[in-house]
Amino acid sequence: RAISVQPNYQDAYVSLGNTLQLQGKEDEAEAAFRQCLQLNPQHPEARKNLEQLLQKRRKLNSSTSEFPKF
Length: 70
Prior knowledge:
By secondary structure, the protein is mainly α. About 75% of the residues lie in helices and about 0% in strands.
């Protein structure tokens, strides 16, 4: 709702990203963090959260690639 009222409200995108990530909607969370960073490339929380999300994905991808496919 905050985004529809104030589309440039950076912290709303961070909050949305956090909520989406908790719901397991990682692609949508990534998009929300990136939207915040389009408004402010130096936003510390958006940068941190996006980095953590991408690191988590890399770990999951590398751990599943270690197992043989049946």
